[in-house]
Amino acid sequence: MTVRAKFCCHFIKKYDGNKSQTVHMSAVIDDTPENKKWSKYTPSGELQMHISNPDALDQFEQGKEYYIDIQPAE
User: Fold this and answer.
1) Total domains in the fold of the chain
2) How many CB atoms lie within 10 A of CB 13?
3) Does residue 19 lie within any of the structural domains?
4) CA triplet 65, 16, 62: central angle to 5 degrees?
5) What pTM, to 2 d.p., does this model score?
């Protein structure tokens, strides 16, 4: 089973002359049918990732929403 959640990037903190960054995200809480698919009531959640991979640094934008799929690692 996979759980799909939607998170919003609230802010990005850059380090070492933009060679790494920490992305801060939280669950989107809009009252929409899409959001209710993964949480019956107001969803909540936080995610913080420190990224130093040059290919991944530009993949996140403040204020943009992202899907996060969660499934068992096998």
Assistant:
1) 1
2) 11
3) yes
4) 15
5) 0.80
